[in-house]
Automatic annotation (TrEMBL):
EC number in record: 2.4.2.10, 4.1.1.23
Pathway assigned in UniProt: Pyrimidine metabolism; UMP biosynthesis via de novo pathway; UMP from orotate: step 2/2; Pyrimidine metabolism; UMP biosynthesis via de novo pathway; UMP from orotate: step 1/2
Catalytic residues in the record: D91 (for ompdecase activity), K93 (for ompdecase activity), D96 (for ompdecase activity)
GO MF annotations, alphabetized: orotate phosphoribosyltransferase activity; orotidine-5'-phosphate decarboxylase activity
Gene assigned in the entry: pyr56
Residues bound to substrate: D38, K60, S151, Q210, G230, R231
Domain of life assignment: Eukaryota
Organism: Heterostelium pallidum (strain ATCC 26659 / Pp 5 / PN500) (Cellular slime mold)
Domain Orotidine 5'-phosphate decarboxylase intervals: 32-246
Record-given protein name: Uridine 5'-monophosphate synthase
Family per similarity comment: In the N-terminal section; belongs to the purine/pyrimidine phosphoribosyltransferase family.
Residues of the full protein shown: 220 to 478 of 478
Keywords in alphabetical order: Decarboxylase, Glycosyltransferase, Lyase, Multifunctional enzyme, Pyrimidine biosynthesis, Transferase
GO biological process terms held by the UniProt record: 'de novo' pyrimidine nucleobase biosynthetic process; 'de novo' UMP biosynthetic process
Length: 259
């Protein structure tokens, strides 16, 4: 059976500074819960962030879905993040050539490189996409998350593609902090953080291809590190107490796999 290390031990092995920071936050706050806040008004996102901030290690955004996005939104979110000690994850899923993603990361309306602690990247363009991020993250220490697998039905990120994404991560382990995946594979070394979306207690999926598993299944049976929960929390009538339930389930799964 696989021997699992603690998050404290993983923080020391991490090769990217944000990976190390995240493992330390998880260990300190005793939470491996990330929440995907896919709400479309800035005040709704900020209110939820402040109310669940103490329970989470990461808050995942899609800033391009916020109707009234402005710089003040980012400013306020950063204050809430530092008050509660969580990291901000912009799930941008960059996929173009290096030169274009550099502009998409640094410029435009959102200036993502200025505030995101981590961003997601597809590998279809090949490993040179990572070069588009190097100038910025050299200064900020931000981490890249490679999409090794997806939660949606019929995903093409499987098999040899997944293996190539892991290889891409290993070749760039200064910039890459980990993988978005559905399982821990033998080749995923302990310096990387494994984050898993597609988590909900009370649903198996939605009408648009999303597929759900439980915190216990992915953390204990499949060996990933951080659960990412969206609608299971932000659509609940009591988001804070629901967040606590997901946090407790995911943390119990982590503790039980250590034994
Ligand atoms: N997300 C997935 N699956 C993936 C990847 C990202 O669901 O494979 I990569 C995102 C989409 C959404 C969140 O922002 O994670 C999951 O939200 P729900 O828990 O509401 O399904």
């Amino acid at each position: 059976a696989k021997k699992y290390l603690t998050y404290e031990e993983r923080a020391k092995l991490a090769t990217n500074p944000t990976a190390s920071k995240l493992f330390n936050i998880m260990a300190t706050k005793k939470t491996n819960l990330a929440v995907a806040v896919d709400l479309t008004r800035k005040q709704e996102v900020l209110n939820l962030a402040d109310s669940i901030g103490s329970e989470i290690c990461v808050l995942k955004t899609h800033v391009d879905i916020i109707d009234d996005y402005d710089q003040d939104f980012v400013h306020q979110l950063e204050q809430i993040a530092s008050k509660h000690n969580f990291l901000i994850f912009e799930d941008r899923k960059f996929a173009d050539i290096g030169n274009t993603v550099k502009y998409q990361f640094e410029s435009g309306v959102y200036h993502i490189s200025k505030w995101a602690h981590m961003v997601t990247i597809h590998g279809v363009a090949g490993p040179a996409i990572i070069d588009g991020f190097r100038d910025s993250i050299k200064q900020t220490g931000a981490g890249l998350l490679l999409l090794a697998q997806m939660s949606s039905k019929g995903s093409l990120c499987v098999g040899e593609y997944t293996n190539q994404m892991i290889e891409m991560g290993k070749q760039n382990s200064d910039a890459v902090m980990g993988f978005i995946c559905q399982e821990r594979l033998e080749s995923m070394s302990d310096n990387f953080v494994l984050m898993t979306p597609g988590i909900q207690f009370n649903s198996k999926g939605d009408s648009m291809g999303q597929q759900y598993n439980t915190p216990d299944y992915v953390v204990k049976e499949k060996g990933t590190d951080v659960i990412i929960v969206g609608r299971g929390i932000y659509q609940n009538s009591e988001p804070k107490s629901e967040a606590i339930k997901y946090k407790q389930a995911a943390w119990a799964a982590y503790e039980s796999r250590l034994n």
